[in-house]
Amino acid sequence: MPSYPEFTGRSIVITGAAQGIGAVTAAAFAKEHARVALLDIDIAGAQAVAKEISSAGGRALAVSTNVTDEKSVAAAVANVVAEFGGIDVLVNCAGGYGRLATVEDMPLDEWDNTIALNLRSVFLMSRAVIPHLKKSQAGRIISVASISGRTVTAASSPAYGSAKAAVIQLTRFLAHQLGPDGITANAIAPITTLTPRVRALRTEEDIARIAAQVPLRRLAVSEDHSNAMLFLASDAAAYINGVVLDVNGGRVMM
Ligand SMILES: NC(=O)c1ccc[n+]([C@@H]2O[C@H](COP(=O)([O-])OP(=O)(O)OC[C@H]3O[C@@H](n4cnc5c(N)ncnc54)[C@H](O)[C@@H]3O)[C@@H](O)[C@H]2O)c1
Fold this sequence. Notes:
8 helices, alpha/beta, binds nicotinamide-adenine-dinucleotide, 45% helix, 15% strand, globular, Rossmann fold, 254 residues
């Protein structure tokens, strides 16, 4: 496993960190001696993850946040800065969608809510954190997009896929506009990932069917993504800016 001594003492904000990829990523940064702030609407879940990190000797702060709400985001960022003194890395991980859908059967509120959770959230969080990243020596924004934002798959939602494609384009704008301040912005695009939530939703047959389409013949695990994000946050990735890293086992190559 990689080790990044430069993370010691850095302040990392991770949204959607109460479970799944966000929780694993928070624990991975904490293991590298970073201070991690877990922002989630599920405060009990975020506190449980923070407690586990603290028990393992890490420094973690759980902050109740609705990433789609401007005031909640502002309060959360202020809370982290008061506690940690600054922010070096933002990981935009909160996201998702409720059900497989078509454009024809999608109510407007489902469209709006999905776009808000996956895209507005990245805009609000990034905008609130930028002034703090500008004071860092190693500012980074890493956003979790999806294979659904790279290509069209049957098992997805048009609102979700469209929002994730827009997250990739927003990442490029951030990379372009913040580069002069020494801040990089990159995205990762995961394939279906065997988080506890996904395992509960999918049958063994579903998992085998999707895995058969992947050159590496397995689905991703959260650590595949946390490894990619730790690299993008590291000093070794200082010149990587505006990319989307497809963490998909070769399922879609572009
Ligand atoms: N798991 C996959 O198969 C997969 C595949 C591709 C991309 N992704 C993306 O990876 C990211 C993480 O996915 P996951 O499956 O680990 O997620 P998850 O559904 O397990 O966890 C999402 C977290 O976000 C939190 N959240 C939801 N709404 C929120 C809000 N308004 N404000 C703050 N927090 C909120 C939830 O409480 C939860 O803790 C998402 O952006 C998802 O779209 C996941």
